[in-house]
Structure formats: C-alpha cells, structure tokens
Write a structure and sequence with these properties.
Layout (H helix, E strand, L loop, with lengths): L1 H20 L6 H18 L12 H9 L3 H11 L1 H6 L7 H21 L6 H10 L1 E5 L6 H6 L7 E5 L6 H16 L1
Antiparallel strand pairs: 1-2
Helix pairs in contact: 1-2, 2-9, 3-6, 6-9, 7-9
Length: 184
C-alpha cells in the first residue's frame, strides 16, 4: 500500500505546485482533506480519485455529506443519550451515505470476482479474509544490520488457510470503519 500512498502524495504535490505557481490561496483543511480522501479511496477501495479537480464525483460528494457539520453534534448526542436515539429510532449516521459506500464495496467485490482481478488494498484483504485465504510474510532471521541497510528487500510470503472467516457484513463494517477513521 506504500506505493498507493506515495502516488496520492505525488498528485497532492502537483496540485500544490500548481496553486503556488498561480499564487492561489488554498484552504489547507480542505486541501489535505482531499489528500486523505484520495488516499483512503485508493487504499481501502482501490478507487482512483482526484478530489482536488472533481468535487462532483459521487464518492467525493458522499464523503463530504458523511462528514458534514451536523455529524459531530449527532455523535455527541448519540453518546450522551443512546437510549433516546434508540427510542426515537434515530441513527447516528446518515444511512443513505453509508448505504452508498456499502453498495460501492459490493460492486467492486463483484467486479473483481467476475474478472478475477486482484488489487493490493484493504478491500482485497477483506475479500481474502472472507474466503479464509490470507498471505503473511515469512519470518526472517535477519541481523539488525541487514534490516538497516537492506530496506528494499522484498519479503517472501506464505499462503495459509484458516477455519475462521469474515462475514460480508463484518467486511463491509471494516471498510466503513477504515473510511471513518481515516477521514476524521
């Protein structure tokens, strides 16, 4: 995933350079929020965004809607009065927004399964966990000196199966949680 983050950082740098060349003022919170959003979209969902240039993209607009001004107030009220929320059947999140991200995840999973297309992202990890097939790095007995001077060495991976799997709902919840944690 490092390469994915580096690519998002490169795109961010290019947009920052363009703004500097034009002597434009930028809103730092929104600018780096775009970086976070692009990085999360790429690392979690395998989706390439350019939220700096395309604010009308459905992913971008739903993310902005999810983290609108009333979200903090809703969270505070939900944690202070959870019984009231349950009694009034109010959800702490906008269900349309989270339904969008769930259906997006489901569609991406279907496309990957139909085309046998693998990507190295969080969603793929969840798919592998659902199937019970995960790969883990083989433990190397490197010396401390080798670790310091051979940083670019590729680790070998070993495939293993597990009896424990992740349900579809658990996988979707993890993706939404990944999104929430990164965007906050």
């Amino acid at each position: 995933m490092t390469a994915l983050i580096e690519d998002c950082a490169r795109i961010t740098r290019e947009h920052l350079q363009k703004a500097a060349e034009k002597n434009d003022n930028i809103d730092a919170k929104q600018f780096f929020g775009n970086f976070s959003l692009d990085t999360i979209a790429r690392c979690a969902f395998g989706t390439n965004l350019d939220s700096y240039s395309d604010q009308t993209n459905a992913f971008v607009s739903k993310a902005r809607e999810a983290f609108g001004q009333d979200l903090n107030l809703r969270f505070i009220l939900f944690f202070l009065f959870p019984g009231l929320f349950k009694l009034l059947k109010i959800k702490p999140f906008n269900s349309d927004v989270f339904q969008f991200f769930k259906s997006l995840s489901v569609n991406i999973i279907k496309q990957r399964q139909e085309k046998d297309n693998r990507k190295e992202d969080f969603l793929q990890l969840m798919m592998d966990a659902q199937e019970g097939n995960l790969a883990a790095p083989i433990e190397n007995t490197k010396t401390r000196e080798d670790e310091l001077y051979n940083l670019g060495d590729d680790e070998k991976t070993v495939q293993f199966s597990s009896d424990k799997t992740v349900t579809e709902d658990e996988a979707m919840a993890q993706c939404v949680l990944f999104f929430l944690a990164g965007q906050d």
